[in-house]
Amino acid sequence: MQARGNWSSKFGFVMAAAGSAIGLGNIWKFPYVAGANGGGGFLLIYLAIVATIGFSVLMAELVIGRSTQRNPVGAIKRLQGGKWWPLIGYAGIITAFVILSYYVVVAGWTLAYIFKSASGLLATTDDKALGGMFTGFISDPVEPVLWAGAFTALTVFVVIGGVNQGLERSSRILMPALFGLVVILCIRSLTLPGAGAGWDFFTTPDWSKVTFQTVIDALGQAFFSLSLGMGTIITYGSYLSRDTDVVESGFTVVSLDTLIAVMAGVMILPAVFAFGLDPAAGPGLTFITLPHVFAQMTGGVFFGPLFFVLLAIAALTSAVSLLEVVTAYFVDELGWKRKTCTIWAGVVAFLLCIPSSLSLGVWSDATLFGKGFLDIMDFLATNLMLPIGGMAISLFVGWVVPKEMMDDFCSGNPKLGNLAKVWLFFVRIVSPLAIFVVLLNGLPFVAPYLPWN
Ligand code: PFF
Asked: Which CATH fold would you assign to the domain 10-449?
C-alpha cells in the first residue's frame, strides 16, 4: 500500500476542510438562491438545516473518515458495509464528476473576470451593459470553455501535489484574505444609498414566499455548501490522525462556511436593491452586481481583480476536494498512481464541462424538462444526489456501526457522551427522515402524487 499523506496539524485540516466547503457555493450560489427564494425566510430555514441535519451529517462523515483512514468506498467496506453500503462511495465518485462538470465552468468565469476587471472593461455602473457583457461572455462557444479548461488544469496540478503540499498550503493564507475582502465589501454594500431594502429583504422573513421548493433548495444548498453527501468530508477526515478531536473541528468548519455564506448575502443583496436590480435574477447576480460596486468604490480598480483572484482560489480549493474524492479511490482501492488517475479524472471533467458551457449559448435549445445541461447537472447533484447520499451516510452510521462511531465521536473524551447521544438520535432518525420528507415533497415529479397534496 502506498503511504498516505496527513494534515500537518488540526489547524491545517480545518483550513483545508473549510477550503472545500467555502467556494462558489457560498459566494456565487447562496446569494442568488436566497434571492430567488424570497430572502429572509430562506435564510432562516437554511440556518436551521445547517445546525441540525448539516452538522450531524458532517460529523458522521468525519468520524467514518478518521476512524478508517480510507477513501469512502474503502472506509465503508472496512466498517462491515457488506455489498450494498459501499455504493455510497461509488455514488460519491459519480457525484464528484456531475458537480465538476459545471463547477469548473463557473470557476472559469471567475478566472476570466480577473482579467476583465483588471483591464477596466467592467468599469461601468451601467447595469444593462454589465448584464450584456456577462451574457455575451457565458454564451460564447469558445472563450468560457478555454477558461474552464485552464481552471481544470490548475485543479489537477494542485491535486497531484498531494495532501500536505497541495491542499493545505493553498488554503492557509488565502482563505483569511478572502474573508477580509468580503468584510470590506459587506460594509461597502450596506452603506450604499437604498441598501436598507436589501438588508430587510435578507433578514426579515416573508413567509408568503416560502414553499416546499424553498425548503428543498435550502436543503440542497446546505449539502452543496458544506461539501456533504458524497464522501468529501470522509476523504478529508481520513487524512486526520486518529487522536485529533473531531467535534471541535467539525463545528468550526460548519460555522466558518455558514458565516461566509451569510456574509456573501450581505455583500450582494443590499447592493442589488441599491442599484434597483432584481434579486431573483439568477446565476448572473454576483457577476453583474459586484462589478457595479467596484466601479463606484474608492480603490475599486484594485479590489475588483483582487476579489476575483480570491474567489477563483476559493473555487480551486473546493474543486480540488471534488477531484480528491476520485483520486483517493483510485489510489487506495485500485493502486493507481496519484498522477495518472488525477490527470485522467481531469480530462473527463473537462469533457463533461463542454456541454455545460455550451448549454448557456449555442446549445441552449437542447433542454429536458425545460432545463439545459448545466441546470440538469446542478439539479441532479444539489437536489438529489447530495441529499440522498447524506441520508444514506446518516443511516449507515446510525444503524450499521453506531457503537464504534459513538466511541469515535467522543474521541476518548467522556464529557462528550451526552452530545454523542443527541447526535446519534439525529443521524438515526431526525436527519434521514427530514431529508426523506423534504425530497418527497420538493420533487416536481413526485410531489403532486402524494396523498396529502
Ligand atoms: N462546497 C463547495 C462550495 O460551496 O463551493 C462545493 C463542493 C465541494 C460541493 C465539494 C461538494 C463537494 F464534495
From this structure: Hydantoin permease (1.10.4160)
- Does the CB atom of residue 318 touch ligand 1 within 6 A? yes
Mean pLDDT of 8-21: 83
**240, 66 contact by CB (below 8 A):** yes
Ligand 1 close to Cβ of residue 225 (< 6 A): yes
* Stretch among 321-330, 331-340, 346-355, 440-449 having the lowest mean pLDDT: 440-449
Q: How many C-beta atoms lie closer than 10 Å to residue 196's C-beta?
A: 13
Is residue 261 a contact partner of residue 227, using CB atoms and an 8 Å limit?
no
Give residues with Cβ within 8 angstroms of 398, minimum separation 6: 60, 424, 427, 428, 429, 432
Please give the pLDDT value at position 446: 76
Contact (CB, 8 A) for 288 and 32: no
SS3 of residue 131 by DSSP: helix
Write 211-216 long-range contacts (CB < 8 A, 24+).
Answer: 212/438, 212/441, 212/442, 212/447, 213/37, 213/442, 214/37, 214/38, 214/41, 214/42, 214/45, 215/45, 215/438, 215/441, 215/442, 216/383, 216/438, 216/439, 216/441, 216/442, 216/443
Q: What is the pLDDT of residue 177?
A: 85
Give the residue-averaged pLDDT of 359-369: 91
Closest ligand 1 atom to residue 26 Cα is: 4
User: Whole-prediction pTM value?
Assistant: 0.94
Residue ranges covered by each domain of the chain: 10-449
Closest protein CA for atom 7 of ligand 1:
227
Q: Given the CA of residue 24, which atom of ligand 1 is nearest to it?
A: 5
Set of cell numbers at residue 162: 498531494
Question: Between residues 226 and 415, which one has the greater pLDDT?
Answer: 226
453 CA distance to ligand 1 centroid (A)? 33
| Cα gap 137→120, rounded to integer Å | 16
Q: Amino acid identity of 283?
A: P
User: Does 65 have pLDDT greater than 90?
Assistant: yes
pLDDT at position 1 is: 39
Ligand 1 pocket check for 314: Cβ under 6 Å: no
Number of H helices, E strands in the chain: 22, 0
Residue 57 grid coordinates: 451529517
d(CA 354, CA 374): 10
Cα dist from 71 to 78, 153, 273, whole Å = 10, 23, 45
The pLDDT value recorded for residue 200 is 98
Is 73 within 8 Å of 239 (Cβ atoms)?
no
Other Cβ atoms within 10 Å of 178 Cβ, number: 22
Distance 128 CA to ligand 1 centre (A): 31
Is 220 within 8 Å of 54 (Cβ atoms)? Answer: no
